[in-house]
Amino acid sequence: MASGGSAIRGSRVGAGPMGEQDRGFHAERVAISYWDASGNETVRYFAADLPEDEIPEVIDSPQTGLPAGRDKDAPPQVSKAEPYKTHLAYVKERRTPEEAEQLLDEALQKLRARRGQAS
């Protein structure tokens, strides 16, 4: 028969003279519901004696990753920022040929100035 450790069989490791209530297992808690833009509800539990200003108004929803707020009727909206640039965004940023030529001339002048070959 293998045995190990000094714990008595059936006892909990670390269960010292304090009871479970002293360690927080049965501490008073309040349930706060959060809703995201998709309608998913997430319930988080906070200590009952925690001040109201320390309870967050917005969290990230674990179901969707979207921001979730405490107001069921008006949850936080999904941000409109693009996570990456689309091809159309790059096309909109393209410069006119005149601007491109001016940038190239400026770059060449700086390069020639560094080399000492101003022409």
Give the helix/strand layout.
Elements: H1 20-23, E1 29-36, E2 41-47, E3 58-60, E4 67-69, H2 87-93, H3 97-115
Antiparallel strand pairs: 1-2, 1-4, 3-4
Protein name: RNA polymerase-binding protein RbpA
Pfam family, one: RbpA
Function: Binds to RNA polymerase (RNAP), stimulating transcription from principal, but not alternative sigma factor promoters.
Structure description:
The protein is of the alpha+beta class. It has 3 helices and 4 strands, in the order αββββαα. It has a 4-stranded antiparallel sheet, with no helix packed on it. Strand 1 (29-36) and strand 2 (41-47) form a beta hairpin. The longest helix has 19 residues, at 97-115. It is elongated and about 80 Å long. The model has no long low-confidence stretch (mean pLDDT 78). Forms a complex with the RNAP catalytic core and with free principal sigma factors. InterPro entries: RbpA_sf, RNApol-bd_RbpA. This is RNA polymerase-binding protein RbpA. Binds to RNA polymerase (RNAP), stimulating transcription from principal, but not alternative sigma factor promoters. Keywords: Transcription, Transcription regulation.
Structure summary:
The protein is an alpha+beta fold. Helix content is 25%, strand content 18%.
